[in-house]
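User: Hand in any protein.

Assistant:
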Amino acid sequence: MTSALQAILFDFDGVIADSEPLHLRAFQQTLDAEGLPLGADEYYARYLGYDDVGLLEALARDRGRPLSRAQVDALVARKAAVLQELLQGGAVVFPGAAAFIRAAAAAVPLAIASGALRHEILAILDAAGLAGFFPVIVAAGDTPDGKPSPAPYVLAFEHLRRHAGRDLDPRRSVAIEDSRWGLESAHGAGLRCVGVTTSYPAEALPGAELVVGGLQDLTMPALDRLVASARDA
């Protein structure tokens, strides 16, 4: 039987890596020194979907504290250094994520479309033995606009098409996301969407056609059924 599923594109933080709490702590340590406190509730409600530059720019606007691009770049570098220290505390890949990724990579090409910095993504994937399963990684700074713009997923899908050497169909390809910003981005790129409730409850994931607790609860047959329904509709 021929599979309907052609490709899977993953968000990273909150989907593969349980790193959102570490990102928050890194931002808090960095921003407290600037007199820009950032609470957990505010981070998850307002800022989680941004990449680092976008978060700092949005926070500065919301606080009425304009930041120059040089100041933003310096804060991004400082936050990245703090995060690297926090990541040394141990593995941050979600339980069951590695097993699902290995099974998925045996069936279809995989990509990552993330607002995280490339070196952070690669460090976590390398530590988990997963780097070789992702021929395409779109990270912070690879597109002019981050999520919720569709640009990260559009670029990742274009690269995945070239890697696969065939004309993949976005309606037979799935994006896996943990936030409404990511789902908006994936929808804008024409992809089918799966939501995981690692960061938000199901009701806060509008547009997800399938919602699961995490990658440990997802199966390839379930994704195949999802995209087959679109193909046959």
Notes: The mean pLDDT is 93.
